[in-house]
Amino acid sequence: MDTLAGASVEGAGFPYSSLSQLDDSVAKRSLAGASIGDPSVIQTSDGKWYAFATRTIGSAIYIQAAQSSDYETWELVVNADGSQYDALPDMPAWVAGGPPGTWAPDLVQVADGTFVMYFAAAAASSPTHHCIAAATASKVLGPYTPVGSEAMFCPLDQGGAIDASGFVEDGQRYVVYKVDGNSMGHGGACGNAVAPFVSTPIILQPVAADGITFNGAATTLLDNAGVSDQGVVEAPALVKSGSTYILFFSSNCFSDGHYTLSYATSTSVTGPYTRAAKPLLQSGDNEFTSPGGADVHVDGQHMVFHAAHNGGRAMYQAVISVVADVVSV
C-alpha cells in the first residue's frame, strides 16, 4: 500500500497526514490541489482506524479510504494492482451521470455488525444540488452497496442536503445533516454571503436500529447567523460528554480563509444549542488555514478534520478534551 505523508505540524501538538503525493484536485467545492477533505473516522473491534473522505476530482474514485493501526501513521487503501481503492464503486440511479460530486462520507456500525456509510451525491433531477443516501457493507472497507432506489434526504427545493453524520445514545440512533441552502444563495463567498441570506439548517433525524429507517420527527439544531457566518453552517458531528451534548460544525466559506471548526452545547440532544464563545480552531491557530469539516469518533475524543495544505486540503487528527463544557485540542 502507498503510505500517506505524516509529520508533526510545528506548534500544533499533534501529527497530521495528507495525500500530498497525489496530483489530482480533491475538494468539496472544487478547491484546487491534492488533499483529503471532509474526513470521517471509525475504529473497528481489532483496534484499527479507518478514514473515509470526499471523492478525488479528476479520477474515477467516488469515496477514498485510508487506514491506520496507531492513529498517527496512515496508509492510502489501494487495490492489488496499486490503483486507488474506491469504497463506493457504484452509484444509485438517482445520482447524476458523469462525475457525481460525492462528498463527505460518514460511517457507523449498527448492532448487527453491518457498516453503514452516509454520503452525498449530485441529484440527476437537479445536478447542481446534492442529496444524502446510505450504503451498507459487511466489512468496514466495503465495497459499499447503496440502499434502495431513492435518497434518504433530498430537499431540493431548499438546496439539497449534504454532510450526514451518525450519532447513537442508549440504542437510539440519529443522523445529523445540513440542508445545503447556500447552493441557492444570492452570491458572494460559497454562494450565500449576500443578503438576503438563505437558511442552511443543521437537522437531527431519529432513525431505527438499522441506521437508515426514520422513526421520529426531525429537529433543527442550528442555523447560520447571516453575515457573521458568511451564510454557512455545515459539517455537523454530534457527541456526548457527561450530560452535555456537543455539536461540532463549520461556519463561513471553506475556500477563503474564514472557515472555522466550531461547536455548540446543549443539555438535550434536540437542543437548544448554545455556541461556544469562540471557534475550536480557526485560521491562524497552530498555523492552520481554514480548518473544518470535522468528525469525532464515538469515544468523544478522537477527531479528524481538514485544513488547507499545499494548495489543497490535508486530513489532520487530534485528541480533544472536554472540561466544564469547554472543548480543547
From TrEMBL:
The active site is at D38 (proton acceptor), E234 (proton donor). It comes from the Eukaryota. InterPro entries: Glyco_hydro_43, Glyco_hydro_beta-prop_sf, Glycosyl_Hydrlase_43. GO terms for molecular function: hydrolase activity, hydrolyzing O-glycosyl compounds. GO terms for biological process: carbohydrate metabolic process. The record marks D163 as: Important for catalytic activity, responsible for pKa modulation of the active site Glu and correct orientation of both the proton donor and substrate. Pfam families: Glyco_hydro_43. CDD domains: GH43_ABN-like (cd08999). PANTHER family: BETA-XYLOSIDASE, ENDO-ARABINASE. Belongs to the glycosyl hydrolase 43 family. This is Uncharacterized protein. It comes from Friedmanniomyces simplex.
